[in-house]
């Protein structure tokens, strides 16, 4: 059995030449197949999927709040920019209608009509666009519908725009039971912030972290973005230095993909203000070296965590998982999404499904209204039913991305195949990566070496049957 790199997750110094050699576009693999393979869902199918799910499986609930008060120019999401608080009140009514309809299918005598929840996440948009009383209203509504794991056992998180926090919002969230927060910081340089229309000072971020720790939040994540206008290796190094002084538990360092032809907001950013490709690589390399030297463990695909964080521990113990919410330790949960564009992942004894709600707000609201009048219809408009071949390749890809190794014997036992024979073409494609010492392959399996960990997606992409010319322009580069 291959033990992978579970003993040590420390990255070596950044190798720019290797990154340049393998830097190609590819998916982030929050699912396999990816969301690009969704197809229209027939009436009645979502009802059947929820009815037939394994009731013993706990739930992970995701709630999408699409509203923002400000347009960030780097944004590549389907957000609704509004300052009207009434918008969120109207949206909550639709959201609670969807929750009620799905709850009826998830609840039964086996779970005493209150399905068990181990994980919950509010994303967006800006979830803290909701007023404190609206957050309380939604939380209490959920308490009536679901049974939640105790706060010290469950994972209850929310994304926060630091500019959109009321005086008592953090305390309200903690009192409700949220135990993890994620702050979108992106950069602390004032010139960069002005250029992307997201201005806040470092003192605000530091004060939020201080308050969150005093309130007893278990984990704090900060998001950064490299490749933004006016960033330089020197300016971003200063941002990273300031962030490290705040000592977040986790850090996400995302690659900005400039695609103004696809995302209207990005047209506000001038091409000439962006760092050059070499500067961008230097920014990334410096950041990786700094975080590694500071003791952060590279989890994978842009994510770092302190060694004592539960994600880092789960990775070292081979228990890490990945889904539409990113890296998680809740591998036994069915994910049920609520709200515009929300995605669910549901399994039963024989199949696995992915479902997505409408990405347009009006279409989503119309689907909620339609579900009230048609018991055979819910809110999903697209879905995927995965085949056994999909689940085999998903297993391979997720093992490589979460644990840096693939044990052929393990795959043989789980899927009744001879992995070496089945994947002989893929193994041949990995030959150059082995020659470059990114991976190690033998009769036991495939292990991603420390030198190749930043390029784990490239290794995974070799096993993706759907990755072809029809989708290539839909992805950003790995780095």
Model description:
The protein is an alpha/beta fold and 479 residues long. The chain has 2 domains: 19-25 and 388-472, Arc Repressor Mutant, subunit A (Orthogonal Bundle); 35-335, Alpha-Beta Horseshoe (pyruvate-formate lyase- activating enzyme), CATH 3.80.30. The protein is 37% helix and 20% strand. Strands 2, 5, 6, 7, 8, 9, 10, 11, 12 and 15 form a 10-stranded mixed sheet that branches. The chain has a 4-stranded antiparallel sheet with strand order 1-18-17-16. A hairpin with a 2-residue loop joins β20 (439-442) and β21 (445-448). The two termini are 31 Å apart.
Describe the SSE topology.
Elements: H1 16-22, E1 39-40, H2 45-51, E2 59-65, E3 67-68, E4 80-81, H3 85-106, E5 116-124, H4 132-145, E6 147-148, E7 155-160, H5 169-176, E8 180-186, H6 190-196, H7 202-215, E9 219-226, H8 233-246, E10 250-255, H9 277-293, E11 297-300, E12 303-305, H10 310-316, E13 321-323, E14 326-328, E15 334-338, E16 343-347, E17 352-357, H11 361-373, E18 380-386, H12 388-403, E19 405-407, H13 408-415, H14 419-422, H15 424-429, H16 431-435, E20 439-442, E21 445-448, H17 456-461, H18 469-472
Parallel strand pairs: 2-5, 2-15, 3-4, 5-6, 5-7, 7-8, 8-9, 9-10
Antiparallel strand pairs: 1-18, 10-12, 11-12, 13-14, 16-17, 17-18, 19-21, 20-21
Helix pairs in contact: 3-4, 3-11, 4-5, 8-9
């Amino acid at each position: 059995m291959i033990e992978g790199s579970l003993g040590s997750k420390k990255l070596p110094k950044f190798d720019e030449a290797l990154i340049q050699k393998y830097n190609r576009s590819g998916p982030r693999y929050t699912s396999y197949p990816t969301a690009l393979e969704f197809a229209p869902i027939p009436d009645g199918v979502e009802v059947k999927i929820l009815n037939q799910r394994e009731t013993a499986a706990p739930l992970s609930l995701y709630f999408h709040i699409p509203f923002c008060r400000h347009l960030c120019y780097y944004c590549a999401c389907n957000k609704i920019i509004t300052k009207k608080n009434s918008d969120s009140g109207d949206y909550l009514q639709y959201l609670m209608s969807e929750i009620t309809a799905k709850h009826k299918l998830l609840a039964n005598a086996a779970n005493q009509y209150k399905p068990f929840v181990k994980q919950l996440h509010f994303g967006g948009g800006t979830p803290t666009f909701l007023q404190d009383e609206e957050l309380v209203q939604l939380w209490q509504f959920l308490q009536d519908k679901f049974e939640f794991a105790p706060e010290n056992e469950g994972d209850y998180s929310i994304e926060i725009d630091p500019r959109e926090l009321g005086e008592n919002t953090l305390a309200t969230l903690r009192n409700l039971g949220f135990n993890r927060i994620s702050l979108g910081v992106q950069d602390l340089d004032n010139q960069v912030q002005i250029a992307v229309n997201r201005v806040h000072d470092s003192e605000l971020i530091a004060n939020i972290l201080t308050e969150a720790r005093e309130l007893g939040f278990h984990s704090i994540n900060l998001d950064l973005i490299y490749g933004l206008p006016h960033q330089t290796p020197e300016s971003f190094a200063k941002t990273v230095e300031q962030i490290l002084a705040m000592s977040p538990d986790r850090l996400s360092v995302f690659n900005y993909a400039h695609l103004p032809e696809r995302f209207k907001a990005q047209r506000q950013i001038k091409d000439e203000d962006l760092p050059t490709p070499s500067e961008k690589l230097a920014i990334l390399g410096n950041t990786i070296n700094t975080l590694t030297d500071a003791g952060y463990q590279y989890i994978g695909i842009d994510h770092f965590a302190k060694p004592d964080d539960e994600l880092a521990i789960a990775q070292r113990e081979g228990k890490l998982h990945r889904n539409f919410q990113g890296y998680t330790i809740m591998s036994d949960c069915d994910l049920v999404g609520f709200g515009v564009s929300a995605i669910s992942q549901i399994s039963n004894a024989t199949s696995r499904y992915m479902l997505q709600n409408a990405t347009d707000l009006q279409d989503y609201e119309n689907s909620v209204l339609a579900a009230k009048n048609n018991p055979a219809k819910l809110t999903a408009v697209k879905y995927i039913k995965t085949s056994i071949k999909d689940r085999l390749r998903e297993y391979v890809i997720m093992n490589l991305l979460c644990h840096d190794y693939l044990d052929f014997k393990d795959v043989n036992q789980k899927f009744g195949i001879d992995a070496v024979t089945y994947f002989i073409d893929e193994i041949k494609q990995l030959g150059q990566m082995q020659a470059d010492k990114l991976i190690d392959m033998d009769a036991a399996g495939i292990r991603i070496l420390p030198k190749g960990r930043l390029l784990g997606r490239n290794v995974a992409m070799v096993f993706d049957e759907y990755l072809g010319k029809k989708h290539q322009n839909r992805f950003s580069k790995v780095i």
